[in-house]
Design a protein that fits this description.
Elements lengths: L2 H5 L6 H7 L2 H17 L32 E5 L2 E16 L5 E7 L8 E4 L3 E8 L8 E2 L18 E7 L4 E6 L5 H6 L3 E7 L8 E10 L9 E4 L5 H4 L2 E4 L4 E7 L7 E5 L4 E5 L8 E3 L1 E4 L4 E6 L5 E6 L3 H5 L4 E6 L2
Parallel strand pairs: 2-5, 4-9, 10-13, 12-20
Antiparallel strand pairs: 1-2, 2-3, 5-7, 6-8, 8-9, 10-11, 13-18, 14-17, 14-19, 15-16, 15-18, 19-20
The structure holds copper (II) ion.
């Protein structure tokens, strides 16, 4: 059976598969990885929604929720190295019917790519700055001062950030050039997921990154969003299956607000703080996140229907940070 044949039931993106399968060695590792996946039940993932893109958005913001960038796996002196390409640009985004906003973003999208690696690998991130302003990529996690990403990379320059993927868990990354508030709120942020040495149980995996837009440069947000576009998942609900374990990678990158909360309707979730544990620390239906705080949340909906998710500061929800899970019967 071909590799694409193996993965058909999981419906992962071609780019994702090719990322795992970079090179001959990479292909072997990918095949092993997929074989491991096949030994346990595959998660049920609804087919992608095909709908017209929102005007003025050059990518499908709906697809970001399940879009993972596995980069390209190579080996140097026996060491697995995962290489990523990240480019900063200015791109206008249509935030709603009335507002077009010039975002500063990574790989043409807000949030930037959800980079994915595994503990024990080495990461090599080639950062190209094609934007008119100086930017950088500062990663959370452990690395040397030289790789901390606080030095400006000027227009047209490239910086290679290289460090070990550790520890496993969720690590935000973002531009760290002053004023950082502005560089982040204009869209220069994303999530790096470092998987534990042993895989987590199969699940339909989703990414939600919370962001805010300070449209008038007055130190407060006028709009909020999950994954860049306000209300995108309110207007096109995220489809999931009944009785399917959902693993949600949640990150708060909202500037200006001291903390925000996240709540799901008609259910509770288990919390894996910072993605640093293999066992949940608590079960609840609302959790508070300070700036750059992030968690893995796991839950299963037993009954079909539509269920809201949003911050429980309802003014944030009313300004765009609102979404719906549409639970499909199995
Ligand atoms: Cu910047």
């Amino acid at each position: 059976m071909t590799l694409p044949g193996l993965i058909g039931s999981v419906r992962r993106s071609r780019r994702q598969v090719l990322g795992w399968a970079g090179g001959t060695v990479g292909a072997a590792i990918a095949a092993t990885w997929w074989a491991t996946r096949q030994s346990s039940p595959s998660p049920q993932v609804p087919p992608p929604i095909t709908a017209p893109l929102p005007p003025g958005v050059g990518y499908d913001p709906y697809a970001l929720v399940r879009d993972f960038d596995y980069g390209r796996l190579i080996h140097e002196q026996g060491r697995p190295i995962r290489e990523f390409e990240v480019t900063a640009r200015s791109v206008p985004l249509q935030l709603n019917q009335a507002i077009t906003y010039v975002s500063w973003n990574l790989n043409g999208r807000v949030p930037g790519p959800t980079l994915r690696a595994r503990a024990g690998e080495r990461l090599r991130i080639r950062f190209h700055n094609a934007d008119g302003h100086s930017h950088s990529l500062h990663f959370h996690g452990r690395h040397s001062a030289a790789m901390d990403g606080v030095e400006p990379i000027r227009h047209g320059d490239t910086m290679v950030y290289e460090f070990d993927a550790e520890p496993f868990g969720l690590h935000p990354y973002h531009c760290h050039i002053a004023p950082v508030t502005r560089h982040i709120s204009k869209g220069l942020y994303g999530l790096l997921i470092i998987g534990p040495p042993q895989s987590r149980p199969p699940a339909d995996e989703l990414v939600l990154v919370m962001g805010g837009y300070d449209l008038q440069d007055r130190g407060q947000n006028d709009l909020y969003a999950f994954n860049g576009i306000p209300n995108i998942y309110r207007d096109r609900p995220i489809q999931i299956y009944q009785n399917q374990r959902i693993r949600l990678y949640l990150l708060n990158m909202i500037e200006w607000d001291a903390a925000v909360s996240f709540h799901i309707h008609a259910n509770l979730f288990q919390v894996f703080p910072t993605g640093r544990t293999l066992q949940p620390s608590q079960e609840t239906d609302v959790i508070t996140l300070g700036p750059a705080e992030r968690h893995i949340l796991e839950f299963t909906y037993p009954l079909p229907g539509q269920y809201m998710f949003h911050p429980h500061q309802d003014h944030l929800a009313e300004k765009g940070c609102m979404g719906i899970f549409e639970v499909l019967p199995t």
